[in-house]
Amino acid sequence: MPRKSKLGAGAKVVGSTAFKLSEETLKKVEALGPDAPGGPILAVRVADIGVKDALVADDPDVYFTTPHFNGYPAVLVCLDQIDVAELRELLVEAWLARAPKRLAQAYLDAQP
Fold first, then answer.
1. Which domain range does residue 88 map to?
2. Is residue 64 part of a domain?
3. At 20, is the secondary structure helix, strand, or coil?
4. Does the pTM of the predicted model rise above 0.85?
5. Is residue 78 part of a domain?
6. What's the whole-number average pLDDT of the chain?
């Protein structure tokens, strides 16, 4: 049986998953003002800053960043703008960049 908990200010429920943002995070998002993209956004860690810069430069309608992520290998993704296959590839690459080496190799070896 799922646990029930009270959600406070800044909480967002997506399906059966809830996210709670701190006041600081909410202020950073609000600081984007009219430049903030609409729709759902996902933060994804990438292998390095070079990958981040390439994604943002190649497809700024899908990938972007904010000053909060300066110097950090993560990119923000507009989920309404990304193809499912591209999102899958991005998530797999993000996982491979952080997974233990043997587990990542076992995954790669099992791919057709």
1. 11-110
2. yes
3. strand
4. no
5. yes
6. 81
The domain total for the chain is 1
Look at residue 49 and tell me if it is in a domain.
yes
**What is residue 2's DSSP assignment?**
-
19, part of any domain: yes
**DSSP one-letter code for 1:** -
Which DSSP symbol is given to 68? G
Residue recorded with tokens 């993560």: 74
The yes-or-no verdict on residue 4 having pLDDT over 50 is no
26/9 Cα distance (integer angstroms) = 10
Q: Name beta bridge partners: 64.
A: 76
Q: For 38-78, how does the pLDDT look when each residue is reduced to its tens digit (9 = 90+)? A: 788 889 999 999 999 999 999 999 999 988 889 999 999 99
Q: How far apart are CA 85 and CA 99, in angstroms?
A: 21
CA angle (30, 36, 40) in 5-degree steps: 100
Instruction: Tell which residue, 29, 59, 64, has the closest CA to residue 43.
Output: 64
